[in-house]
Structure formats: structure tokens, C-alpha cells
Amino acid sequence: MLADGDTVLRPIKLRDQRAWREVNQRNREWLRPWEATIPPPPPGGPVTHRPTYRQMVRHLRAEAHAGRMLPFIIEYQGRLAGQLTVAGITWGSMCSGHIGYWIDQAVAGRGVMPTSVALAVDHCFRVIGLHRIEVCIRPENLPSRRVVEKLGFRQEGLRPRYLHIDGAWRDHLVYALTVEELSEGLLERWHRTRPGASQK
Fold first, then answer.
1. How many domains are contained in the chain?
2. pLDDT tens column, 92-109
3. 36 DSSP assignment
């Protein structure tokens, strides 16, 4: 478990199903433009369906046990408020991963997501031993871009038609950080630079 004040990251569990569904369904329209979708199969190819919650959790756990993923639930003030996953973890000469996330609209704008990303990045760099973290975001997703920009991620460029999102192949901006760019922890930087920090 990773925590800072009212914000907690913890492993996703099967028993989170009811709370996860409630938050996800209540935020359907808020999340739909940014959610991954399954592209149509090629002619004669197999039809792939979205996994059930239980199938999703089992897949995330299997990937975590294989060292390729860190799947977290985000809690805010003791309630499930979203999800953050460090995926695509690669070792060897690369030592990198990428972060994806979503948040309950009801708590957006309270610093929950920047805090969550900072917690995850510090864990990846200081505990797991990764060297680089990427976040890929649709150019139109201004709230998500603000999260990484507040934390000082570098924008590296555009990946055309990078992921199938909301029913089509969508361009994504690439943001990244390497461990050398942080002379302090990312959470420490966030606390120092977030709005209102100088008044504390």
C-alpha cells in the first residue's frame, strides 16, 4: 500500500467489484472518450469481448505476478475513487513502464490524481528499480495532460493512431520522466510546487 494523506494506492481485489462498478458506471460519460476499446476483428477473425470485472482482475494479478504490471485501486478518504496501473514493465536494458489511470469525476480537481501518479512513480523508481516512466494521453484530454504537466513530465512527441480509444485508433502525446530528472522524490516535488504549497 502507498499513501499520502487522504490518497491511497493499494492492489486491486476481487471484492472491490461492487464499488468499482458503481464508480465506473456513474462516470460512464465522463470516462467514455478516454477509455480503451477493442478494435473490430479482421474478416473471419475471432470476436473479442470486453472482459468481466473478475476476468480483468485475474489478468491484472497474473501480469503483476509475472513482474509486468502494478495494478492499483485509488482510494480517497476511504472510498474507491479510481484506478492506476503501471503496465508494460520491461526489464533488461530498458527498465521502463507506462502509467494509465482514471478518476471519479466527483473528486477530480482535488489533487488526487497527481498525488497518485507521484506515489506510483516514486515506488517504481525507488523501490522497483525502473529507469523511465511514460504516460500516453490523447491531445484532447486536457485534464489528464494537466496531471502530468503539473508533475513535470516532459512532452516527447506524438504517436499517431497509437491506441484504440472510444471506437477508433487515436493519436497520443507521449510524456516521460527518467530517474535522473528527479533530484528529489516526485511526491516531494508535487508537495513543493502544487497550488497553495507556499501558504502551508
1. 1
2. 999 999 999 999 999 999
3. B
Please tell me the pTM assigned to this model. 0.93
Positive or negative: CA dihedral 155, 5, 97, 22: negative
CB distance 124 to 130 below 8 Å: yes
Contact 44, 82 (CB under 8 A): no
Q: Could you please report the per-residue DSSP string of 46-89?
A: PP--PPPHHHHHHHHHHHHHTTS-EEEEEEETTEEEEEEEEEEE
Are 20 and 75 in contact by the 8 Å Cβ rule? The answer is no
Domain with 27, as residue range(s), is 2-199
The residue to which cell 502544487 is assigned: 194
Q: What is the pLDDT averaged over residues 173-194?
A: 94
Residue keyed to cell 476476468: 55
Which pLDDT belongs to residue 194?
84
Cell 501518479 maps to which residue? 117
Q: 113: domain CATH number?
A: 3.40.630.30
Q: Which grid cell sits at 57?
A: 482482475
Residue 45's pLDDT band (cuts 50, 70, 90): low
